[in-house]
Amino acid sequence: MGFCFGRRSDRVSERIKEDQATIDYNCRSTDVLIAQASSNKDLVARLEEMKEVLKYLTASDLDRVFECDKKIGNRIGDLKIALTKSSGEPSQKIDDIISDIGVAVAERNAFIG
Hints:
The protein is mainly alpha-helical. 24% of the residues are buried. The longest helix is centred in the first third of the chain and has 32 residues. 81% of the residues lie in helices and 0% in strands. The N and C termini lie far apart (35 Å).
């Protein structure tokens, strides 16, 4: 009776690498947001704070965590569009998206425990 431990750990390892790549991409994407908002110091400060939170997320192989990371990435994309439309100036839509990202991070952290 043979056991195959390698395959499960390989899948877990691949999933963690994939999640880490998503986290890294989300973090790098905030640099674009910061550049777009460069004319507004308060907004830049909020985006830099968000980048710091994203930078220290721990990669996981859990599906729910991975879905949260994709959701964060999608909202970052929405934020890029909103910042482009507002020429980098703050708006209620931008505030709502930043709040949504914060909620997704909190949800993600709850899954990790």
